[in-house]
Write a sequence for this structure.
């Protein structure tokens, strides 16, 4: 038992060390940027997973939350000089309000209908942003997008000259969202969510307020997603309505989470990092070969993962993880499951 | 007098575009009605049909409308095999899951594959099959309508009507409907449910080929053209009632009318937002739509 615990802790420490020393070895800004994007996508997929993975709801409109977070923070920064470090919480707050506003009517919809509603809301928001030039005193920029005011090297305003600080911020954000997901999954709300994922009527009959549970989880998810949107805005320094709110953003989060393993704590992280890395590598080496090739392969990977490993990459890793911990035979495996379930 | 003519033209134009929306939505509603799957690859399959028709037209010069007899069977085979080799395995694995969202995601990923495949094969250019129909107009009773749109309206009405009769009065139509009502009971009655599903998906895709060809003479084709129509098809289908054939046509015409009449009084953006708002309103108030009922299929 103790040996297992030591192994677990050493594994966590190993990953943390690797995470923190990567910028010492990867010095080329482009490569570091690619790795940073992997972490950001892992973060976004995890944020999506907080509600949609744990509660089994298919939201195809999470781009709305990245957009609201990013636009609110950037508008406050551009027009009122408010630091994005503060603005990000304003953006996240706006996203939380919006998630409740959207969630209240949509959460009675089931399965496919809920997915369709989120698609419509997502598309509607893109059209709205594309056609809004200004919102009161704030410049929105419409379809041309919004450029983030440049400050040079200004850590207080979330702008850095080198890529390293961005990397570390993304890493810390990812660690926070994973810890939060771990807490959420083992909290009372987490049990509510997994109950209503299996059977909403039964959960309701057992006295769970299904709609409230969904609203709270969706608010958490919107909060983290919006912070990711702000980060994206500060990293790219340019907001294009379709890129930040459109179907690419929304769908990518879902695909990464599902390929990694939705509904698990680490699945979206694994999915976000591996799938995004694969896509970047293909683009880098074969991008010139044919337009669209990297997305073609990316789509195929998602198709085959859904067909052959619906539980995600995490299912494969779990096996190796168990073997590493010394849990080899099935009986032992089941015992450990019972032990964790009981504790 | 002048004003009246214009408004009549606006209405006829709206109806003809709406009929095409209805035709596109027909396949979506069929697949949902029978398999209870929302096909997110519907737009991409429409794009594929348009691309295939465009390039066949380009190299053979056959009248686009005659291409229907060639492209529709090809699309049927594509749809049938897609169901058989990709969707069926996932559907089988998720038999016990009440809401199979994995299939939905699978079709969404499939759409990415198709879009980028056609980007690789055909490039990102906007192309259109400019034939004699493209610039021709037809005038009757003071209404002027482009010939392509007029033919599109006729084809859409004939196909939708024919399809409705096919579902109601043929053996295969009855099989399809029975699988939609209750797949287990249908299976007990000796119907090969998996095969019927594949046929349904094939027919839904073949219907897209017809819609693609009616669009070809007056609509630009490019790899993401499907997205425009897919979101509309979703709206149309929910408005008319998921699974209802008359609902799809009527829902399409309503959306077409809102768009064309709206365009006279406000910006296209506002019209789009209004369409989305109506869609959400229908979802919240009456998710079964105008014609949808649980026993429709």
């Amino acid at each position: 038992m103790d040996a297992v615990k030591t192994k677990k802790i050493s594994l966590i420490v190993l990953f943390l060390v690797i995470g923190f020393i990567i910028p010492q070895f990867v010095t080329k800004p482009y490569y570091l940027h690619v790795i940073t994007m992997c972490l950001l996508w892992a973060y976004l997929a995890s944020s999506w997973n907080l509600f949609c993975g744990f509660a089994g709801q298919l939201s195809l409109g999470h781009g709305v939350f990245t957009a609201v977070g990013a636009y609110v923070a950037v508008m406050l920064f551009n027009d009122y000089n408010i630091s994005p470090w503060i603005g990000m919480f304003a953006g996240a707050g706006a996203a939380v309000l919006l998630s409740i506003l959207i969630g209240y009517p949509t959460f009675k919809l089931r399965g496919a209908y809920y997915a369709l509603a989120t698609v419509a809301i997502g598309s509607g928001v893109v059209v709205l942003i594309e056609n809004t030039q200004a919102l009161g005193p704030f410049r929105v920029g419409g379809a041309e997008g919004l450029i983030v005011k440049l400050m040079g090297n200004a850590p207080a305003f979330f702008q850095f000259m080198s890529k390293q600080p961005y990397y570390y911020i993304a890493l810390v954000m990812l660690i926070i969202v994973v810890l939060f997901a771990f807490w959420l999954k083992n909290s009372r709300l987490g049990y509510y969510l997994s109950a209503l994922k299996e059977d909403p009527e039964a959960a309701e009959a057992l006295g769970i307020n299904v709609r409230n549970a969904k609203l709270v989880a969706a608010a958490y998810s919107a909060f983290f997603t919006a912070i990711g949107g702000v980060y994206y805005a500060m990293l790219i320094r340019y907001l294009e309505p379709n890129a930040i709110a459109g179907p690419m953003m929304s769908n990518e989060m879902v695909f990464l989470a599902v390929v990694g393993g939705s509904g698990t704590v680490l699945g979206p992280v694994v999915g976000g990092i591996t799938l995004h890395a694969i896509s970047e590598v293909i683009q880098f080496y074969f991008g010139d070969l044919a337009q669209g090739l990297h997305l073609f392969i990316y789509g195929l990977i998602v198709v085959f993962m859904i067909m052959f490993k619906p539980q995600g990459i995490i299912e494969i890793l779990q096996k190796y993880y168990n073997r590493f911990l010394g849990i080899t035979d099935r009986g032992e495996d089941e015992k450990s499951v019972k032990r964790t379930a009981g504790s | 007098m002048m004003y009246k003519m214009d408004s009549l033209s606006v209405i006829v134009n709206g109806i003809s575009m709406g009929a095409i929306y209805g035709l596109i939505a027909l396949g979506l509603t069929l697949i949902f009605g029978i398999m209870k799957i929302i096909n997110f690859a519907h737009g991409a399959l429409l794009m594929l049909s348009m691309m295939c028709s465009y390039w066949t037209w380009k190299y053979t010069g056959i009248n686009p409308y005659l291409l229907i007899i060639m492209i529709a069977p090809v699309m049927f085979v594509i749809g049938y095999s897609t169901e058989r080799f990709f969707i069926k395995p996932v559907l089988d694995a998720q038999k016990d899951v009440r809401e199979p969202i994995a299939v939905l995601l699978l079709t969404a990923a499939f759409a990415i594959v198709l879009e980028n495949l056609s980007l690789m094969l055909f490039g990102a250019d906007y192309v259109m099959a400019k034939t004699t129909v493209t610039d021709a107009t037809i005038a009757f009773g003071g209404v002027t309508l482009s010939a392509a749109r007029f033919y599109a309206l006729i084809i859409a009405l004939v196909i939708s009507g024919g399809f409705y009769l096919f579902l109601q009065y043929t053996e295969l139509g009855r099989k399809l409907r029975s699988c939609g009502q209750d797949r287990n009971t249908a299976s007990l009655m000796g119907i090969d449910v998996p095969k019927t599903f594949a046929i349904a998906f094939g027919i839904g895709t073949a219907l897209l080929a017809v819609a693609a060809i009616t669009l070809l003479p007056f609509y630009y084709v490019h790899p993401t053209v499907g997205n425009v129509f897919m979101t509309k098809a979703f709206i149309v289908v929910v408005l008319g009632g998921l699974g209802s054939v008359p609902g799809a046509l009527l829902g399409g015409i309503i959306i077409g009318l809102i768009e064309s009449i709206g365009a006279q009084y406000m910006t296209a953006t506002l019209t789009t937002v209004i369409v989305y708002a109506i869609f959400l309103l229908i979802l919240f108030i009456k998710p079964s739509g105008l014609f949808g009922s649980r026993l429709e299929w």
